[in-house]
Amino acid sequence: MNEAYAVLERWGQAFNTGDADAVASLYAPGATIWGTLAQYLTTSPADIRTYFFEAGRSRLRVELGPHVLSRFPGPAPSLPVISNLRARRTDRNFPQGTVLS
């Protein structure tokens, strides 16, 4: 289980440094994401990379806080499901639960 969280930490570090290639490389080839800043589903590796490139330009940062790791029955997702990230811009802080658009 610690291995899954280590991947999530790598994801956060890559996201916070704006390394879109590193973030995108952590997703399975057939992954689909609906990012916080997205208006639509992102379904191809190239689009996932572009999404995280643009997210990096927004200067958003993620902060991993207290967590609980749970096993999923059957096939597990490539990355843990993230349901409670705190996002902030480098020039402003957003309260937890703020919807960014």
Notes on the structure:
The protein is mainly alpha-helical and 101 residues long. It has one domain: Roll (Nuclear Transport Factor 2, Chain: A). The longest helix is centred in the N-terminal third of the chain and has 15 residues.
Primary descriptors:
8% strand, mainly alpha, single chain, 2 strands, 3 helices, Nuclear Transport Factor 2, Chain: A, disordered C terminus, two-stranded antiparallel ribbon, 101 residues
Could you write a compact summary of the structure shown?
The chain has 101 residues and is mainly alpha-helical. 34% of the residues lie in helices and 8% in strands.
- CATH third-level topology: Nuclear Transport Factor 2, Chain: A
Low-confidence stretches: 79-85, 97-101
Q: Which H/E pattern describes the elements?
A: HHHEE
Structural class: mainly alpha
Largest sheet: 2 strands, antiparallel
| CATH C-level | Alpha Beta
- Please identify, by name, the CATH architecture: Roll
Helix count, DSSP H or I runs of 4 or more residues: 3
What separation lies between the terminal Cα atoms? 33 Å
The proportion of residues in beta strands is 5-15%
Total number of distinct structural domains: 1
The residue-averaged pLDDT reads 76
Radius of gyration, taken over Cα atoms and rounded to an integer in Å: 13 Å
- How many beta-strand segments? 2
Shape: globular
The percent range for helix content is 25-40%
Main sheet strand line-up: 1-2
